[in-house]
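Help wanted!
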Amino acid sequence: MSLARPARCLFCTFSRATSAGPRVPSRQFHLSSIQLSDRKPKVPEINAPEGKTLEEVYRDLKLDDFKPYTEEEKAALKEEYTPEQIAAIEAGEAAIDPKDLHEQFRLRRDPMRLRYLDDLSSIEPGVDKHVRAPKTNSDYNATFKSDDDLMEDIVEYFVNAPEEPEPADLVRFLETNRVTHGKEENELNGHSAIAPNLLNEGETLEHMGSDIKERPRYRTPAGELTYLNPNEPTEQEKKLFQVTGYSRDYIKSLYVKDLVVRRVSNQTRLGKIPSMSVLAVAGNQRGLMGIGIGKSDEIIDACQQARARAIKNMRPVPRYEARTIFGDVKGKVGAVELELMHRPPGFGLRCQHLIFEMCRAAGIQDLAARVNRSRNPMNTVKAAYEALMSQRDPEEIARARGKKMVDVRGVYYAGVKIVPPLPKPGVAQGKP
Amino acid sequence: MSLVNLSHVCSHLNNASKARLALTSINNTKLHLKLCLALQNDGLISSVVRGSRAPPPLHPILGTPSAVDESEGVEPVTQSNVASRRLWLGLKYWQSEPVLGKLTMVSKPTKRVNIDLAGLRRVIRGERSNSVEGLRSPGEALYISTDKGIMEARECVEKKVGGLVLCRVR
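Answered by r_m:
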């Protein structure tokens, strides 16, 4: 018998506590008091929400519930809504008879009912389906083939025709040969009077009607009219402006050159897949220089990639007196080991063409270079870049050693730092 | 004058600066001490202290051992403890790069290289003199053992002395 059991009145044997369920005559293994069965459960029942459920609302619905707004309610509404919205609410109230509302209000039970509260006034990206522009077969840039193009088609047909051509083949060719340049669906199943196009040229879902301006056309150097604006930057260029923050004029003025162009191939189980790899250098000829590598199936695409990356990678190259480098530097990439050596004014760039172009892009005019061991072009460029970037700033060295530093050349010329004139704009615009 | 030990010192200092150590010790010899003092004079190392095998106490403000430490005091060198003395060098770093770049020996234990004043003049102008390369990079220094002590090449030219070329700092 546990001492924790509360003392009970002897005269209270008829109370509920005594007659309640069987008392367990077993040992108690814990110190807390016995839970008597007549006690209330500790956790109260979860209270029903204060408001009514939709079912209850529906069940208790009376005709009197649909009353017009009182003046007080209208005043409260005015605080919440604009006058236009209030007018709309009142118009809605006037349009629907309360009797109809009482008789026709039903809770939806069909499987298509909404399981959340929504007035369906806006399109929600996570829940609702996207609204897309209608698909069209039209191609507004389609043009008819010229006589020459049609002649070429015929010539190609006869070149590829079998040894003994059948008349049926020729008929089939004449029936199926296309007469326009552009989208095939436009020719086969374009819009017509029976199935007119949903949107006219230049129209979008937002802008329809007669205020659509005709798209401007531009004449190419060959004399043809196109919709492509030659002065408008391409998508790639736009991206470059965005990434670098340089203007179009500035990028045009940069010195860009493709240094290494290689055909590379990837050996797969399907065979060799060739592509082009280009290494380009870019610089402003005033101390900024960068290199970039581009790879693509097409040589033009690879060049564009490489040039854009070179421009993006442009970093400041330290230059002594804006003409040569600070001290002799060494670079090593792979088996290419090279040295770049500073030289006096007027010495020129006495080095191999790859390093010459890099120095020209960076605006270095006096330099000698020696490339030892391997002379792999790509690694030479990388090693030269590494060497140019590994120059140590004399000011930093002096500060690290706690010494005062004086440029003796500057002292010789009455303390004036010599900066050569900037390169002419014609030179800067030199493009490969 | 053991160039073998000096070569070991050069290698050890290169390794210590690559490992970014703040304090390291080398053998206590007169040659090492003079070279280290020349290095300290040029701001390449922060401190040179002669101590025992245990590192000397750090200066409370400088954070490196100090040769003239008022609070702790430096143990004087006696005949009984001279064999256990070592030179403790404080290494310097600037923007996570060692200030003492790379030490290379010019004279080798098997081939000592001497240079005269005319040769030194060419070397400090960046030209080559016999087997000694010119000083062509900013911050490059050449240490020469002369009659007037161990000095940097430019100081030797000022004092018009030549001598044994010990090592080069890049």
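OP: Thanks! One thing I noticed: The mean pLDDT of chain B is 90.
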